[in-house]
Design brief:
The structure is a homodimer.
Chain A: E1 2-5, H1 11-18, H2 22-28, E2 30-34, H3 36-43, E3 49-55, H4 63-69, E4 75-79, H5 81-87, E5 96-101, E6 114-119, H6 124-137, E7 141-144, H7 154-159, E8 169-171, H8 176-182, E9 186-190, E10 207-212, H9 220-225, E11 228-230, H10 243-259
Parallel strand pairs in A: 1-4, 3-4, 6-7, 6-10, 7-8, 9-10, 9-11
Antiparallel strand pairs in A: 2-5, 3-5
Chain lengths: ~260, ~260
């Protein structure tokens, strides 16, 4: 059933608009996904949708999406284009928006392999790129410490190119890191202070790759959790690498070691 | 000698302002560098400076820079803060700007090792990050095809974190690629269409790593130049990697192979 909303003062529209704010997303345990390709991605992912909103201008252009959801619990709303535009972050929105439920991560779903711990990274493009690489390289999940940029903000989500929907995004609640330690995962910390060559390390076991803030690297807390502290060799003389690049080099060295 | 400029209508100021435009940079063979750290980087690089402009507000704060240039040919101008602000791209400029001469690349300065060919990459942050990684990994230079974003634009320069000043930036003039071929450099093209595993390739010889546009990859021309077409294995299922990430993984696999 498709419902129609014509007023921007509709109470549901007001609730959706709140999800543009990080705190409200956390409280409601929901986030927004914009655009046809991204909405299709999230529909075909393990995430569940609360609702779909689309612009009257999209009539006939998204039939396959709507039909696919017809017998689901997802609520479908057709709204005035101006209302939809007001809910979107892009300047010229395509005219479709999904309200998606944030998934809680359960520690008993931990898998063998490697996780990527992102400590207080600030740039949405960097975190999005890290998640895209994590998905490509077969990471089992991403762990975000408090103080990291919100992965469910629009720019970060866009930089993941859909990859955010295909792996667990785990917020550090104070328990996940000790639990990983207990389960024998080795913490590999990237640090400019180390002189241990990253390429000499065996990466085939259960691992947590830890990377930190653009300017300051990992916090003391994460540094102290490190079982192995490594530096990516930089023979050319630059002082450091972009954090998304450094973490991707580490993830794909795991890919390489597992292939050979 | 420090000259003083008080009018925004000063003819030199007008010439400097033109350098905010790509075409004018190309015509004048000069570009602008903003901020204390970046100006220091470029002074300590192989680039030559035409002039330094600084805000009257910086009096006493940049003495070491000014003194270092005292007996050089670099012209030094103290200008009103509003004039300097108008020449800068950042919203709250630190108050120092250098006019730097673009270096022509001469083919007889080619070095053994690897170059990175960037084909029509559009995002300034991506190209800046590629140059930063190229510097870190010891690349001998960057080659930019026509249609690539200008590396001398403010955002791209900032993303390089100073690395742009420490390696040749070579614009493809139609002659450099055939010359590299003639000299026996192997062209390694990253392509999603290939199924040759990148990690199986020996990367120790003279190489040109070729990466392409964010949406479309390399052009047919570059693809056809390729001696080896490879794909970085992505066991996790994402369709592709960010172009700065893909090129950095390739550069650091060269670092790894040369270390072992």
């Amino acid at each position: 059933m498709i419902r129609t909303i014509e007023s921007k003062d509709n109470s549901f529209i007001k609730e959706v608009k709140k999800l543009k704010d990080r705190k409200q997303r956390k409280a409601a345990k929901q986030f927004l996904v914009e655009g046809i390709k991204s909405v299709e991605e999230v529909i075909n992912s393990p995430y569940t949708l609360d609702s779909i909103l689309y612009s009257e201008k999209m009539d006939g252009k998204i039939d396959s999406i709507i039909e696919g959801l017809n017998h689901s619990n997802v609520k479908i709303y057709k709204v005035k284009h101006e209302i939809l535009k007001n809910l979107c972050s892009t300047e010229n929105p395509q005219g479709i928006l999904a309200v998606v439920n944030i998934k809680d991560f359960k520690v008993d779903t931990l898998k063998d392999g490697f996780y990527v711990l992102v400590d207080r990274v600030q740039d949405p493009g960097n975190i999005g790129t890290i998640i895209r690489s994590a998905h490509a390289s077969g990471a089992k999940g991403i762990i975000l410490t408090k103080g990291s940029v919100d992965i469910f903000n629009d720019k970060a989500l866009r930089s993941t190119m859909g990859s955010a929907f295909h792996m667990p995004i785990i917020e550090d609640d104070g328990e996940i890191l000790p639990y990983l330690k207990l389960k024998g995962y080795k913490f590999l910390v990237s640090s400019l202070q180390s002189d241990k060559d990253f390429f000499e390390v065996d990466l085939k076991g259960n691992l947590v790759i830890c990377v930190g803030n653009e300017g300051n690297g990992v916090s003391d807390y994460i540094y102290d959790l490190g079982d192995i502290k490594v530096k990516i060799p930089m023979p050319g003389g630059a002082e450091s690498l972009n954090v998304a690049v450094a973490s991707s080099i580490m993830m794909f060295e795991i890919v390489r070691q597992k292939l050979i």
